[in-house]
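Run log, item B.
One chain of 222 residues. Sequence copied directly from the ordering sheet:
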Amino acid sequence: MADFRIKVDVKAAQKQLSDMAKQIPFTASVALNDLALQVMRKENSAMSDIFKDPRPFTQRATQVEKKASKSDLTAVVSIRPAQDKYLSPYETGGDHWVGAKGGDGDLLVPVDGKTDAYGQIPRGLIKRLVARPDVFVGTVRGIRGIWQRPPTGNQRSGQRGTKGKLGTVGGKRTGLKLLYVFKSNRPVRKRLGFDQVALELVREQGTKALEAAVEKAIRSAR
């Protein structure tokens, strides 16, 4: 009987498999960082679902705080500290954030005072207002707020006194303009669902991100 031998050189295959094994940490880090970026973008875009006309500052609240590397396969997505101050109640509950000084915890709500394009009180405006001689903080006819006194000067009658139409607030004649009113704080009802949004995205996109990372690793190994 004739016999024959088949010889296979597995060294090349072993080397390729070894090279691919070395790429696993890199592949995993690429997938993790891709997912982290996706989570960041989705969390930021979701701000429009919570807030009406959110400021760009709020829409940039989420960050990739830490990227994954081959030696540390951990990516961290978080809220930036400056935004976390007022966004935290929308995740964990509690009253609205009223600023670093807080005061008595009341909210300051615009009535006839200036607001920015997002309906918010411009930063530093209140400090400038209360420094004016015609503006004061106080309670008038049971309403606590920031008030503006009417201008004074020569009237049409020739007399000197209040100029223009005297104001009314809540049907009560005050002669003043209510710029901003203090209202009792209240618990935040809406929730960002930060963790839930991230978990759902990872479940939906995790496999795709890993497949894309594997393809990238194979291309780079050639």
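Observations after the first pass:
- Helices lie at 11-45, 47-50, 56-59, 81-87, 89-92, 125-130, 194-221.
- Residues 1-8 have pLDDT under 50 and may be disordered.
Flagged for discussion on Thursday.
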